[in-house]
Amino acid sequence: TSVTSGKIQVNGVHLHYQQTGEGSHAVLLLPGMLGSGQTDFGPQLKSMNKQLFTIVAWDPRGYGKSIPPSRDFPPDFFERDAKDAVDLMQALKFKKFSLLGWSDGGITALIAAARYPALIHKLVIWGANASVTQEDVRIYNAIRDVSKWSEKVKKPLEELYGHEYLAKTCEAWVDGICHFAGKSDG
After folding, report:
1. Is the pLDDT of residue 67 over 70?
2. What letters, b where the CB count within 10 A reaches 16 and e where it falls short, cover 48-87?
3. Alpha carbon distances (Å) from 30 to 81, 104, 134, 135
4. Pick from 11, 45, 178, 29: which is nearest to 109 by CA?
5. pTM for the whole structure
6. 94, 113, 128 - which closes a domain
7. Structural domains counted in the chain
8. Co-location of 137 and 120 in the same domain
């Protein structure tokens, strides 16, 4: 089964997605910080069982091919991403689906499952935060300058975004995620 891609308007933006498989169990793949469906889930799009699953990988607004708009990080960006993800799956006519997310995608998946439990079948997450500590803030600030990243990590993202957009968006992400350190409720 081939991978198809498209864009669909959701919540005022055009979200890019890739879809493959013909199984009755729909699964949305949620990428991490700066990631896209292709960069974070290329192997899953290629190799997951396409008879059991219908797999959808998305690019959150401002990431991957869901540009424009440029990515921003208001205080509710995880909640916005959760609503976008759920509304994307509903626009694609999935009544119930599972979520597989890592890092920021894992946080987004947790919020989506908590806010829309009747729509979520199963949840698989890894590398997600429940809170941001001062130690996390130190670590995040250490990755703020993408020119210091390893070529292995930096190169595919620079190919996707260009250096300037990658650098600007990473800095904005660090500022956005670090604001959670001041919140006692995660």
Report:
1. yes
2. bebeebbbbbbbbbbbbbbbeeebebeeebbebbbbbbbb
3. 10, 8, 26, 25
4. 29
5. 0.95
6. 128
7. 2
8. no
pLDDT(85) > 70? yes
Same domain, 109 and 144: no
> Which residues form the domain of 153?
131-185
Exposure b/e, 121-157, CB count within 10 A at least 16 = b: eebebeebbeebeeeebeebeeeeebeeeeeeebeeb
Confidence of residue 7 (pLDDT cuts 50, 70, 90): very high
Q: pLDDT by residue (tens digit) across 148-165?
A: 999 999 999 999 999 999
Q: Within its chain, how far is the Cα of 32 from the centroid? A: 5
Inter-helix orientation angle 151-161/163-178, to 10°: 110
Q: Are residues 122 and 35 in the same domain?
A: yes
Query: CATH no. for residue 62?
Result: 3.40.50.1820
97, β-bridge pairs = 120
CA distances from 81 to 6, 60, 78, 84, 101 (A): 18, 7, 5, 5, 12
Q: How far apart are CA 12 and CA 32, in angstroms?
A: 22
Residues 79 and 112 sit within 8 Å (Cβ to Cβ): no
Residues 26 and 111 in one domain: yes
